[in-house]
Amino acid sequence: MGNVGILGVGSYVPEKTVTNFDMEKILDTSDEWIRTRTGIIERRFADDKQTTSDLAAIAAKRAIEDAGISPEDIGLIIVGTNSPDMRYPATACLVQDKIGAKNAAAFDLQAGCPGWIFATTVGAQFVKTGMYKYVLTIGAEVITRMMDKTDRYTYVLFGDGAGATVLGNVEEGGFKSFELYADGSLAEYLTLPAGGSRLPFSQEVLDKRLHYTKMNGREVFKFSVREIGRISKNVMDKAGLKPDDIRWFIPHQANIRIIDAGMKRLGIPKEKVVVTIDKYGNSSAASIPIALDEIYREGKLKKGDNVLMVSFGAGMTSGAFVVEWSK
Ligand SMILES: CC(C)(COP(=O)(O)OP(=O)(O)OC[C@H]1O[C@@H](n2cnc3c(N)ncnc32)[C@H](O)[C@@H]1OP(=O)(O)O)[C@@H](O)C(=O)NCCC(=O)NCCS
Questions:
Q1: Tens of pLDDT along 150-191?
Q2: Is the minimum distance from the CB of 166 to ligand 1 under 6 angstroms?
């Protein structure tokens, strides 16, 4: 059994750009507040007719093309998302149909913003065991529809998008270490309370706007800064690598202050850190594969580069891995 690596990558962000100045028109907020507190300048919003599976399917087709295989070759599709098209069926099944991956099994994986990190970690195990030759892992969100337009605290933070990767065996390089983590005792810090078995939809839910995301920003911030440092160090230790051995750090794009604080703790220079939050805001499970695709398409990613990707989010969860780029 060979090593497992990333054979193809692709992403998609919707056309519609919403700037902080646009936010000023609908909320009691300012460009200055959003920029200095979060690093966000603008974000993308899906078109009214676009769903998460639409975004995911575009990113997936690009990744499959990049891998040089056809959709029928895919054995398994895992979609990491917090904004599925519907409560069920799984968005992954809708993606399977849209891209014509008729031989693939498909399921969603709900792990907060690290959804794509979790999906990719799970997918890699299936390749490693030989159960599937090619696994498609996707982080896709129309997360802005889960946000309350009247809540300045959350609405300004998020954006939509999708990123996808094809996993398979590689001769050189590939994944060197993984780590996944959850602490459910902190679950209440970031929730979308209604629409599940705990609080089914009702008039009261709508009146209290419980069908939208609720967040304790300060607690999420503290958890995120702690986890970004802790779990990144763990995956470097497991891989026998030091920060100097890592060429690119791709952290989840939630807040530039979280990224800066986390990277400072690890002693990582800014030139090695990929930042897209200024353009896309927090696109939840899509943020890392979009950022990966961007540096890949810009030609910054070279064969042999060690890349560390790390994420944190609702659950609370965190996850990270190191992959040696093999393309
Ligand atoms: C949300 C977040 C940006 C808030 O930043 P903060 O520095 O913690 O801000 P505070 O919560 O202390 O609020 C400071 C003030 O700004 C106000 N404020 C909040 N949102 C605002 C906005 N969009 N525009 C203007 N003012 C705002 C608050 O009401 C508060 O005012 P007050 O002092 O008069 O009460 C920050 O906590 C954060 O990024 N947390 C992590 C969130 C996250 O990453 N979530 C996703 C995880 S995957």
A1: 999 999 999 999 999 999 999 999 999 999 999 999 999 999
A2: no
Angle between helices 91-99 and 52-67 (to 10 degrees): 50
Q: Which residues of the chain have pLDDT under 50?
A: 1
Pairwise CA distance, residues 297 & 86, whole Å: 32
Give pLDDT, residue 243. 95
All domains in the chain, ordered by first residue: 3-171 (3.40.47.10), 176-324 (3.40.47.10)
Tokens of 252: 């989840």
Amino acid 2: pLDDT: 66
Q: Is 218 in the pocket of ligand 1 (CB under 6 A)?
A: yes
Statement: the pTM of the whole predicted model exceeds 0.90: yes
> CB of 91 closer than 6 A to ligand 1?
no
Determine which one of 3, 20, 82, 252 is catalytic.
Answer: 252
